[in-house]
Write a structure and sequence with these properties.
The chain has 6 helices and 9 strands. It is α/β, with parallel strands linked by helices. Strand 4 and strand 5 form a beta hairpin. The longest helix has 18 residues.
């Protein structure tokens, strides 16, 4: 999807340069400790500069993230409730309908997953950067009309959310990997005119949501044709792949 591809440039997949003779590094290099090696006598060892001093280069102009007059930013269905079997409770989502929405048409769909400690309104909300970016892109013909779904990662009883530790929340968030397919997607498909074809279905997220998007997309490859993972935590991905399945087997779940 055009939006998913452009978001890669807008939200973290840009290149960064250290100096003319230095290698080009990914944007998430800023989260890595700088190398301490400074052996100028060894030509194969290169000392990197302070990553926090690196200048970012963005392909998307900042004006694309601003609200403009004369642009239709679509209609937002906020806090839409549905019952989640995996959560054992109701969950909420935000659904953004594109400008010119026509319920007789079938639209591509993109499920957007928030970061740690966030909510379904972080990216698909009243005046979020993603709503402005998508509205401006659609207005300029850079993408196609589609439906955006703001996913809530917290997948447990809402009344028990308070007081959860970070580690407890991580395992509760993990459940969205299955829940999005078993509970959310059927609800969206039953209530909105979205395509059920793989090539018209995308998932994307930032930070914790970026890691979850990779897990969702690769676990359900028959369902998702596009995956957008922005600044995902590599350690979190490894935890989901190796630790979470082992813990589930030990618990017998």
């Amino acid at each position: 999807m055009a939006l998913c591809l452009l978001l890669c440039s807008a939200c973290g997949a840009e290149e960064i340069a250290l100096r003319p003779d230095a290698p080009v590094l990914p944007a998430d290099f800023a989260s890595i400790e700088p190398a301490l090696v400074d052996d100028r006598t060894e030509p194969n060892i290169q000392r990197f500069a302070d990553p926090y001093a690196i200048e970012n280069r963005y392909d998307v102009p900042s004006s694309m993230f601003s609200r403009r007059s004369g642009v239709d930013y679509g209609t937002l269905d906020s806090d839409v409730a549905y019952y989640s079997e995996i959560a054992g409770d109701n969950k909420k989502v935000n659904v953004l309908l594109p400008a010119g929405y026509d319920e007789t048409k079938v639209y591509p769909v993109m499920y957007v997953v928030h970061g740690f400690g966030g909510s379904h309104s972080d990216h698909v909300g009243q005046n979020t950067y993603l709503r402005r970016l998508y509205g401006n892109m659609l207005h300029e013909g850079l993408t196609v009309p589609m439906i955006l779904v703001g996913v809530e990662m917290y997948t447990d009883k809402a009344s028990e959310k308070g007081g959860k530790s970070r580690e407890q929340l991580r395992y509760i968030y993990d459940k969205v990997i299955d829940e999005i397919r078993s509970d959310l997607m059927p609800f969206i498909e039953a209530n909105y005119p979205v395509s059920t074809e793989r090539e018209y279905t995308a998932v994307g997220g930032i930070s914790e949501g970026g890691a979850k998007s990779l897990c969702i997309g690769f676990k359900w490859l028959d369902e998702f044709g596009w995956i957008g993972s922005f600044a995902p935590d590599p350690a979190e991905i490894l935890r989901i792949i190796f630790i979470w399945p082992s813990a589930r087997m030990m618990r017998g779940t």
